[in-house]
Structure formats: C-alpha cells, structure tokens
Amino acid sequence: MNAGATVITSNIRDFKGAQKSLGLEVMTPEQLIAALLSKGEKR
Distance (Å, rounded) from C-alpha 43 to C-alpha 15? Predict the structure, then answer.
C-alpha cells in the first residue's frame, strides 16, 4: 500500500487505528464523490 495514498472504503471503523498511527487519509466513497464534485466547481 502506498502510504501517501488515500484509502477509500465504506468501512471507516476498521481503519481508525491506522489513520491515527500512520496518518493515513481515509474517506468513504460518498466523501470522495463530494470532494471530486467540489473540485470541479472551482475550475
């Protein structure tokens, strides 16, 4: 796994420990879509 990559998962609970200890960015598919849509609006 690329430590700099964002983890996209519906099961965020399982990644809370890794998120805190490794500093991983974790988001749900819904959060990813919202982020991509908001990025498109800024153009």
Answer: 32
Q: What is the pTM of this model?
A: 0.69
- Is the pLDDT score of 3 beyond 90? no
Residue corresponding to tokens 């690329």: 2
Cα separation, 29 vs 22, in Å, equals 21
User: Rounded to an integer, what is the distance from CA 41 to the centroid of its chain?
Assistant: 20
Report the C-alpha gap between 33 and 14 in whole angstroms. 21
DSSP letter assigned to residue 10? S
Amino acid at site 33:
I
Look up residue 2 and give its DSSP letter: -
